[in-house]
Design brief:
One of its GO terms (molecular function) is ABC-type transporter activity. InterPro entries: AAA+_ATPase, ABC2_TM, ABC_transporter-like_ATP-bd, ABC_transporter-like_CS, ABCG_transporters, P-loop_NTPase. It comes from Rhizoctonia solani. With 889 residues, the chain is of the alpha+beta class. The chain is 40% helix and 18% strand. It is built from 25 helices and 25 strands. The strands form 5 sheets. The protein has a 10-stranded antiparallel beta sheet with strand order 5-6-8-9-10-1-2-3-4-7. The protein starts with a strand and ends in a 6-residue tail after the last helix.
Length: 889
C-alpha cells in the first residue's frame, strides 16, 4: 500500500509532501510470476518513506500476522529495524533537523491498523506513539493493492480453467532464416560437387588429342633482352607486378614480337597511388643480352655475384612478373616437329619441398596435377618410377624429404627431387637457377650428370639452361655452351671448353695460365670488367647453326612488365604466314584462318592439366598425410582446449545467481572467447609456413589458388578450430553451470564455432597480406586487444564516449559475448541477491543491460553479423591469395 504522511509536527519541520510505502509478503512461493520482485521471507514487511520523491529511510519487519474484520485490518509484527539514508532531508542534510539517531533506533514490535472505508492507516511503534500519541504516525489517502496468481482468483470465484492441449513451440523468424541460409549453402555445395564430378568424369574419359607431338624438339632464343628496375617499390605494401594491363603487340616484318612497356614509349607509367618516380634514376640490371640454346644443348650462365645471372634465368623462365621492374627484348622458342604448348620446367636455387611426404609421394603429387587428367593412374605411377630411376633416387624413394625441424634427404638428393618434380610431367626446356650451389663436389657432379642425361636423351632431347655460381673444372666441361656476364652485360656467348679463352685472348684479355681452371679464369675476367661483346654475340666464337632457321618455327612470348608466368601461359599465339602475334584475352570469339597454327592456350582452353575436383582431392590427400605424420599442432590444440576448459570451469565452477555470480558467468564466456581468439594465431603461422611452397607450386601451374584454399580451410578449420572449440565448450559450459537446456547449449556452440571461423579467416587475411610474418602476428595481437576492450566486459558499451563508441562495431568478440549472454539470459535466469540488506529478485536481463549494455533480443542479429564477418573476411582472403600470394624473386 502507499499512503500520504500528513502530520502537523512533521510538516512544521518538513513542509513538502511525504509518502510511506509498505509491502507485506504473505508467501513468496505464491508469487504470480518469477519476474515479480519479492522481499524477504513469509510474514515479512518492508516500508520506505519518501520526502519530495526522495527516499529518506526504510524499515524491515518480521513475524507479521494479519487480523481482519469487516472494515478494519490490523498487522502485528514482532520485530522492526529501520535505517536512515545518509545525506537526505530527514537524515543529516540539515543539522537542526537531523533525525538519524531517532530513526535508526526504531525497533521492537510494530503495528499497522487500516480502515478501508476512510483509507486511513496508523503506523504504531513505541517511540512514535510516545512522540505522536497513542495513534502513532497517522497515514492518509492510502491506496491498497495485492499481487496474486490467476489461479487464486479463479479458485476464489469458482472458475474452472479450460484445459488446452499443449502445442509444439513455433520457430522464430531468426531460426527460420538461419535454417534457410544453411539449406542454401548445403544445396549449393552439393550442386558444385555434382558438377565437379561430371567435369572430372568427362576429362578422364577423353584423351587429349592436342598434346605436343612425341619427339618434338624445342630450343630457346633471346635477343636484346634488357631489364630495368626503379629504387622504389620494394617497400610498398602492395606489389607493382600484376597491376598493369597487357596490350596487344603488333608484329614487325622480322617475325619477332617486340616487348614493350605499358605505354609503348619506353617509359613506365607510375601507379596512381604511388608518387612519380620521374626524378629517381633507374638501374639497368641487364643490358642487351642475346643468345640461343638448341634442343640437346646445355648452357651455363657464368658471372660473379651481381652479374645478373638469376635475373636472366627468371626472364627466360617466364618469371619476370615475379621480379617487378621492366623487361624489354625478344624471348621465344624454336619448335621443330609438331605444335602445341611448350613445356618449360624451372628449378629455383632454393629447394622448397613438402617435408612430410616421401620422394615417391611428392613426385606422384606432381604427376597427378601436371599430367593430363585422362592419363591412367598406372601410367602416372610408371612415369614417377621412371623419373626416380633416371635421377638416381631409388634408394630414397620411400624416405621423407624432411625440413628445418626434421632431418631427411641430403642437399644433393633434395636438388634432384626438385629437378624430378619439374620433369615428371615431361619438359622440353629445363631452366635452373644455380642448381649446384651449396652442394659438395660429388653431389654437384651427380646433378650435372643428371642434367647431361636429360639434355642428350636421343629420343627427347631437352634444352638445359643453368646459372652456375662457381663451377669446378669437371662441372664446367659438362656444358656445351657458355654465357659469361659482367655487371649485366654480355662478355661472351658461344661454345664451351677452351673456346672462350681463345676468343677473349684475341680481344686483348690477359692470357690464362696453363692448367688453370677455365671457369675460374672466366669469372676473374668478368670481375675485372672485360669489355662486353658488341651486339651481344661473340662472332669469333659463333660456330653454331643460325638461330633463324626457316624450317624451325619460333614462338616468342610476352615478358611485358607485370605479366606473371601464369598470365603468359594463358596467351594465344598465332602464326600468319610465319609471323607470330600475341593477342589479349577477350570475350570476342576468334576464328581460325588459313595458314594459321595455334600454339599455347587461349581463353577457351583449360589452364590446369587436372580438373578442379581432382586438384582438391590431391591437395586434401597431402594435407591428410601431413596431419597424420605431424600431429603436434593438433594434439596441442586439443590439450590446450582441454586444460584451459577445465581451468575455466574450475575457476567459475557452478557460479551463483547473484549479481557478482552473473558477472562471473559472463566472465567465463569472455574467457572462452579470448582463448579462441589467441589460439587462432596458429592459423596465421601455418599459412606463413606453407606460403613459399604454395607460391612455387602456383607458379609451376600445379593447381588453382581456389583449390588450395578449399583444402587449406578444410584441414585447418576442422581439426584445429572446430574440434578444439567443441571440446572447450563441452567442458566449460557444464562445469560453470550455464543453462541446462540442450537448445541453449547448441545455440552457444553455434556462436563459438562462428567466432572461431571468423578469427581464423582474419588471421588468414593477415598472413596473406603481409610477407613479413612478424608484422602479421603483431597486428593480430593488437586486434585481439582491441576487440577485448570493446567486447563490453571491461567497459559498459553505452558508457563509452560517442566519439569512440562506434569502434565497438569492429569488435568481433563483442558479438560473441553479447550472443552468449543473451542466450543465457533468455532461459529465464533470475538474479537473487541482497543489496544493502534489501533482498533483490530481478530478471538477469535487467542486470545484463545495466552492467554490459547488451540488448536482450540481439542473439540472431549477432549470429548474422558473425556470419557476415565470415563472408567478408573469406572474400578478403580469396582476393589476397589471388593477388598477393604469388612468387616474388
Amino acid at each position: 500500500m502507499s499512503c500520504a504522511v500528513i502530520n502537523p509536527t512533521l510538516q512544521a519541520l518538513f513542509p513538502l509532501s511525504a509518502n510511506l510505502n509498505i509491502l507485506r509478503t504473505l508467501d513468496p512461493s505464491l508469487s504470480p510470476t518469477p519476474n515479480v520482485t519479492s522481499f524477504g521471507a513469509a510474514g515479512s514487511a518492508f516500508a520506505q518513506l519518501f520526502y519530495d520523491g526522495v527516499e529518506q529511510f526504510y524499515c524491515q519487519a518480521g513475524g507479521c500476522k494479519q487480523t481482519a474484520t469487516n472494515d478494519t485490518t490490523d498487522w502485528a509484527c514482532t520485530s522492526l529495524k529501520c535505517s536512515c539514508r545518509p545525506g537526505t532531508a530527514f537524515c543529516g542534510a540539515q543539522t537542526n533537523t537531523d533525525l538519524t539517531n531517532i530513526l535508526n533506533s526504531l525497533s521492537g514490535a510494530l503495528g499497522v491498523s487500516c480502515t478501508s472505508s476512510t483509507a486511513v492507516c496508523a503506523f504504531k511503534q513505541s517511540l512514535l506513539q510516545a512522540v505522536f500519541g497513542s495513534g502513532g504516525l497517522g497515514l492518509s489517502n492510502c491506496v491498497f493493492g495485492e499481487c496474486v496468481r490467476q489461479s487464486v482468483i479463479d479458485s476464489a470465484l469458482g472458475i474452472v480453467p479450460e484445459v488446452v492441449a499443449a502445442k509444439g513451440e513455433s520457430l522464430s523468424g531468426g531460426v527460420i532464416a538461419g535454417l534457410a541460409v544453411l539449406g542454401v549453402i548445403v544445396l549449393g555445395a552439393a550442386i558444385l560437387l555434382a558438377w565437379g564430378c561430371v567435369l572430372q568424369r568427362r576429362a578422364r574419359a577423353t584423351r587429349n588429342e592436342k598434346q605436343a607431338a612425341a619427339g618434338r624438339r624445342v630450343g630457346v632464343e633471346w635477343r636484346n633482352v634488357r631489364y630495368i628496375v626503379h629504387p622504389s617499390g620494394s617497400g610498398s605494401l602492395f606489389p607493382v607486378g600484376g597491376l598493369h594491363r597487357r596490350n596487344a603487340v603488333p608484329v614487325g616484318s622480322n617475325s619477332v614480337v617486340e616487348l614493350r612497356d605499358l605505354e609503348g614509349s619506353g617509359g613506365e607509367k607510375p601507379l596512381p597511388s604511388l608518387p612519380s618516380q620521374a626524378n629517381i634514376k633507374s638501374k639497368t640490371i641487364l643490358s642487351g643480352l642475346s643468345g640461343s640454346v638448341r634442343p640437346g644443348q646445355m648452357l651455363a650462365i657464368l658471372g660473379p655475384s651481381g652479374a645478373g645471372k638469376t635475373t636472366l634465368i627468371g626472364i627466360l623462365a617466364g618469371r619476370s612478373g615475379a621480379m617487378g621492374g621492366r623487361v624489354s627484348g625478344d624471348v621465344g622458342f624454336t619448335v621443330d616437329g609438331g605444335d602445341g604448348r611448350v613445356k618449360v620446367g624451372f628449378v629455383d636455387q632454393t629447394d622448397i619441398l613438402p617435408p612430410n611426404l616421401t620422394v615417391t609421394e611428392a613426385l606422384l603429387f606432381a604427376a597427378k596435377l601436371k599430367l593430363p587428367e585422362s592419363t591412367p593412374p598406372a601410367e602416372k605411377l610408371a612415369r614417377v618410377e621412371h623419373v626416380i630411376r633416371q635421377l638416381g633416387l631409388s634408394e630414397v624413394a620411400h624416405s621423407r624429404i624432411g625440413g628445418t625441424t626434421e632431418r631427411g634427404l641430403s642437399g644433393g638428393e633434395r636438388r634432384r627431387v626438385s629437378i624430378a618434380l619439374e620433369i615428371v610431367a615431361g619438359v622440353e626446356v629445363l631452366i635452373l637457377d644455380e642448381p649446384t650451389s651449396g652442394l659438395d663436389s660429388v653431389s654437384a657432379a651427380n646433378v650435372a650428370r643428371v642434367l647431361a642425361e636429360l639434355a642428350h636423351d636421343p629420343e627427347n632431347p631437352v634444352a638445359v639452361i643453368a646459372s652456375i655460381h662457381q663451377p669446378s673444372s669437371r662441372l664446367y666441361h659438362q656444358f656445351d655452351q657458355i654465357l659469361l656476364l659482367s655487371r649485366g652485360e654480355q662478355v661472351y656467348f658461344g661454345p664451351g671448353g677452351t673456346v672462350p679463352v681463345r676468343s677473349l685472348e684475341s680481344r686483348g684479355v690477359r692470357g690464362m695460365e696453363e692448367g688453370y681452371n677455365v671457369a675460374d679464369w672466366l669469372l676473374e675476367v668478368a670481375s675485372e670488367g672485360a669489355q662486353p661483346v658488341s651486339g651481344g654475340y661473340d662472332h669469333t666464337a659463333r660456330t653454331r647453326a643460325s638461330v633463324y632457321d626457316p624450317n624451325v618455327q619460333t614462338n616468342f612470348y610476352d615478358h611485358e612488365h607485370g605479366i606473371t608466368s601464369e598470365k603468359r601461359m594463358d596467351g594465344t599465339m598465332r602464326y600468319r604466314g610465319g609471323k607470330p602475334s600475341i593477342e589479349e584475352d577477350s570475350d570476342q570469339s576468334t576464328k581460325e584462318e588459313p595458314g594459321m597454327v595455334r600454339v599455347g592456350r587461349g581463353k577457351g582452353g583449360q589452364k590446369y592439366a587436372a580438373t578442379f575436383l581432382t586438384q582438391v582431392q590431391v591437395l586434401c590427400s597431402r594435407e591428410w598425410k601431413n596431419l597424420k605424420r605431424d600431429k603436434t599442432l593438433f594434439f596441442m590444440h586439443l590439450a590446450v582446449a582441454t586444460i584451459l576448459g577445465i581451468f575455466t570451469g574450475g575457476l567459475y565452477f557452478k557460479v551463483g545467481v547473484t549479481i557478482s555470480g552473473f558477472q562471473n558467468r559472463v566472465g567465463s564466456l569472455f574467457f572462452m572467447g579470448s582463448l579462441l581468439a589467441f589460439s587462432s594465431l596458429s592459423a596465421l603461422y601455418n599459412l606463413v609456413e606453407v606460403r613459399p611452397l604454395f607460391a612455387r607450386e602456383r607458379a609451376g601451374g600445379y593447381y588453382s589458388p581456389a583449390a588450395w584454399l578449399v583444402s587449406r580451410v578444410l584441414f585447418d578449420v576442422l581439426p584445429l578450430r572446430i574440434i578444439p572449440t567443441v571440446v572447450l565448450a563441452c567442458i566449460t559450459y557444464w562445469m560453470v553451470g550455464l543453462s541446462p537446456e540442450a537448445a541453449r547449449f547448441f545455440k552457444a556452440l553455434l556462436v563459438l564455432v562462428l567466432y572461431a571461423l571468423a578469427m581464423t579467416l582474419f588471421n588468414f587475411l593477415l598472413a596473406s597480406s603481409f610477407r613479413n610474418g612478424g608484422v602479421a602476428i603483431l597486428l593480430s595481437a593488437l586486434f585481439n586487444l582491441f576487440t577485448m576492450t570493446y567486447a563490453g566486459f571491461f567497459v559498459n558499451l553505452s558508457a563509452i564516449p560517442p566519439v569512440l563508441r562506434w569502434l565497438q562495431y569492429f569488435s568481433i568478440l563483442k558479438y560473441l559475448l553479447e550472443a552468449l549472454a543473451v542466450n543465457e539470459v533468455g532461459s529465464g535466469l533470475m538474479i537473487q541477491d541482497t543489496l544493502q540488506g534489501v533482498p533483490v529478485n530481478v530478471s538477469a536481463g535487467l542486470i545484463m543491460g545495466l552492467l554490459f549494455g547488451f540488448g536482450e533480443n540481439n542473439y540472431y542479429r549477432d549470429v548474422l553479423i558473425l556470419f557476415a564477418w565470415i563472408v567478408g573476411l573469406g572474400a578478403g582472403v580469396v582476393g589476397m591469395v589471388y593477388w598477393r600470394l604469388r612468387e616474388v624473386r
